[in-house]
Amino acid sequence: MSSSEPLVLIVSGPSGSGKSTLVRRILQLPGTLLSVSCTTRAPRRTESDGKWYNFVSEAEFQQMVARGEFLEYAQVFGKNWYGTPRKWLDEASAQKKDLVLEIDVQGALQVKQKLPGAVAIFVLPPSRAELERRIRARGQDSDDEIKRRLERARQEMLSYSSYDFAVINDDVERATQEVQAIALGSRCRVARKEERIRDILKSFGG
Questions:
Q1: What is the pLDDT of residues 152-188, one digit of tens each?
Q2: Which domain covers residue 121, as residue numbers?
Q3: How far apart are the C-alpha atoms of 82 and 16, rounded to whole Å?
Q4: Would residue 205 be called left, alpha or beta, if left means φ above 0 and alpha means ψ between -120 and 50 degrees?
Q5: Counted domains in the chain
Q6: Rounded (10°) CA dihedral 73, 105, 91, 80
Q7: pTM of the predicted protein model
Q8: Exposure of 204 by Cβ count < 10 A (0-12 exposed, 13-18 middle, 19+ buried)?
Q9: CB burial of residue 144 (10 Å; 0-12, 13-18, 19+)
Q10: Distance, CA of 34 to CA of 138 (rounded, Å)
């Protein structure tokens, strides 16, 4: 792994686990860049195009797939498509920044296969009851939808062992410290510092 390659940080977790908040906290660290996913779902009232998602038609999405433009992509709940455009990897490389991906378990496994050096963080709620409370508090979902989200959360959590780190989000300030520490610590891995270390050794004449 070259230190010029961007560090890729993957953040996953069930809907309602608070992963978006923790991604925003990672992005407070200097030298980080958010990968903006593409999706075929309709924007929510509070969402604007290009901030967290680029909203595209199904036809546009399939054309991007055919052109090989995605690092990973998947269909969620059997209806909407989500994908991570490869261009963000080039963008992070050009800007010499770490790339932060907020993606689901399916996407995370695809990225880890292609980029084994990527660091994957799984965000968990403290309990099923607390997750249900958070989802209900948003007031966006029917009872059937909530039931489906809770079952999907259980399924996703079964993949925890594919991740490098787990953060239990029962206290957002402590969870923030943990995700930021993981990001900063990952920058210090020997494989990422090797070129710099060799330069320092040269200055010692060896």
A1: 999 999 999 999 999 999 999 999 999 999 999 999 9
A2: 8-35+96-203
A3: 18
A4: left
A5: 1
A6: 40
A7: 0.90
A8: exposed
A9: exposed
A10: 24
